[in-house]
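Question (not urgent): is this output format expected?
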Amino acid sequence: MNRFAFVACAILLAPLSANAQSADQLVKGATDTSNVLNYGMGYNLQRFSPLTQINRDNAKELVPVWNYSFADDRSEESQPLVYQGVIYVTTNSATMAIDVKTGKQIWKTKVEYPPETPRIVCCGIINRGAAIQDGKLYRTTLDANVIALDMKTGKELWRQKAADIKEGYSMTVAPLVADGVVLTGVSGAEFGTRDFIDGWDPGTGKHLWRTYSVPSPDEPGGDTWKGDTWKLGGGSTWITGSYDPELKTVYWGIGNPGPFDAAGRPGDNLYTCSVLALDPKTGKIKWHYQFSPNNPFDYDAVAEMVLAEIKVDGKPTKVLMDANRNGFFYVLDRTNGKLLAANPYVKVNWATGIDMKTGRPIETDVTKDAREGKKVTVFPSILGGKNWEPMSFDPQTGLAYANTLLFGGHYKTAPATYKAGEWYVGMDLTDLWEWGTGPRGALKAIDPLTGKAKWEAPSDIPRFSGVLSTAGGVVFSGQLTGEFEAFDADSGKKLWQFQTGSGIEGQPVTWQQDGVQYVAVASGYGGVYSLFSGDERLAKVPAGGSLWVFAVKK
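Got this back:
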């Protein structure tokens, strides 16, 4: 081959090589200590880092490196991404690129919304993060659009409308790029929507497929809905799925059915309160597991489906772990959906346990009475044993670290009339909580196979932040009152805390650049607890979103 032909071939092949390398980088995201390439710090959503520079001995020496203002007063639940010295972070109203070392803004692209958008969002005007691949950044918007931006400039490359906000749909989910497809989910079950997961072409934005979380009568599972109830059946998909590249399978959690009044929708109501194992290329469902059939209590199952390899009966097993909102900690064989373990990790009174043969909950009279329209006190409450806030799994300790909720709730049905774009709940919302007298939450170190806690760090006001664990033996979390905290992964001893100035509901991440390990977290009060709890102790917590970055003082 002559020199000119060689150069021509190199030019032609360069984009293909870059694409392959980028996809490979995403697959290796969980072990890439220089970047944070995936939502969940890896396709497995373990939110664990092998870095050790920050450890249980020196965590007390953490100091802020810089703080960046979002110029936004909403709840900040976003997880930052980091690539080649640049942090990419989202709010509901903007996407930003920030220099890691200086904290200076590189670019900021605002999101413009129609005036009716805030009125129809259920549980906070928020955004949870982005996805990146091949020089593009992908995010969703409250008015149900999927957007691709140029990572260098912030310029919008394409935009696709996923749903009509006038029908009650919205989007807060961080996209997932898996096997060459951008996957997104939607919110809306509280408005009588029929929800779904979409697949998009990452280069052009072309819509590739749609998998509904509530099947029609002619689809598998359609017979679990009576009459036309499936048309308003809910099944939101607002938390990002995990991905196993070897099995080429995405695992995506599905939310609650609508309305909450279960008597009006007899049947199991697939695939609500389930996990779906999907082919990312086609959206085809490989298998499903339903955690809470015909659920009345808003025990949606959208929260993170964590992938790991652990020993089950002495045998290394590819598992999926879920600290379900219904109060049980589940371990499934992720190759086939077989139930391996299911144990309570908080107080549960709606079921006595999970039948290991059928996988179905063994319900109590509390659930029976609720379906009959009687007022009941149920544990956990409709906010769950754990809400959306993601847990972490440390493969070294074998423990899951989760911010759990320790209170119950009152449940009674109420009439529900469907009107497009308005609440369609079917529950009395005037007397929701059974607080008790102790702490309302605890960070727990949970054994996945038993649900038992090795240790717990109680909190009078429950934590609603994500959790990060590291090989340095440190677990990071945050308080709604503003403290960013570090704990010893083995003992639960608090090692350090720092007041960020607003409540923390963000998702901490860590990485190393030029020999320095950084930890970042978004601060900004709001979200579901502030909207519905009436907790007067939070009245003086200021709003105001910002990104904090920390390192050990030299």
